[in-house]
Amino acid sequence: MTDEHITSLRAAAHPLRLRMLSLLTGTAMSAAEVARELDTTHANASYHLRVLLDAGLIVVEGEERIRGGVAKRYRYLVGEGPAQSEADLAAEVEVIAQELVRRHREGAQAPRVIADAELWLAPETWQQVVDLLKQASRLMHEGALPPRTDGAVKANLSLAAFRMS
């Protein structure tokens, strides 16, 4: 694994930055907009956006003049990440688990799907499951709208599927 991949994984393994990636999927936003949406300070949002930008997880999609200054607008371009080390995978699983608890407390509503399974499968069935989960993730990310769009629902999709040894 390259240093670039390690930096990228570590950048994503932070609860606030994970929320930022989700937020920036639906629209490009400035640090001030991200700060307001996530109820954090502008300085904190700017810092975490720089970490994500330096790790190559987000891009600057444009700039706009605001009160005599220039505000960058950031966007998350969804893609499949690199292979992970065991330590990086453990860190990412930990962050996702914390986020699931936070999102549930924030007001998870029905209808919802919760599944847990540790089973033996034929390799073809396992591959079909992985392909369907990737399709669901792509559909969710491609359909993402700007926060609080009229008529839109706030939804969560957290996936973790892996072969057991």
TrEMBL record:
Residues 7-94 form the HTH arsR-type domain. InterPro entries: ArsR-like_HTH, HTH_ArsR_DNA-bd_dom, HTH_MetalResp_TranReg, WH-like_DNA-bd_sf, WH_DNA-bd_sf. Pfam families: HTH_20. CDD domains: HTH_ARSR. Keywords: DNA-binding, Transcription, Transcription regulation. PANTHER family: ARSENICAL RESISTANCE OPERON REPRESSOR, TRANSCRIPTIONAL REGULATOR, ARSR FAMILY. This is ArsR/SmtB family transcription factor. It comes from Nocardioides vastitatis.
